[in-house]
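Bumping with the actual sequence this time:
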Amino acid sequence: MKALGGILVALILALQFPLWLGKGGWLRVWEVDRQLGAQVARNGGLEARNGSLAAEVSDLKRGLDAVEERARFELGMVKHDEVFFLFANVPLQRR
């Protein structure tokens, strides 16, 4: 009878091993679930970034105001009849 109990315990342990530690076992499922959560969070940030870039592209396609604004700030564009003043924040030196 003791031998039968030992065999049954060994069989139960043998069946539990793949469930917990084998390929596709619970430990692997928990790890993949954690990776999925991290990827979902990363994708959310990337979707927000893509949305803002799509809005900027749409704005650039629709009107010249966005193109002009970008040219002014990034390229220093000045219109024909405009005067450009640049004020530098340099502290005055006392003599």
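The tokens above came from a reply further down the thread. The helical segments are 2-21, 26-62, 64-75.
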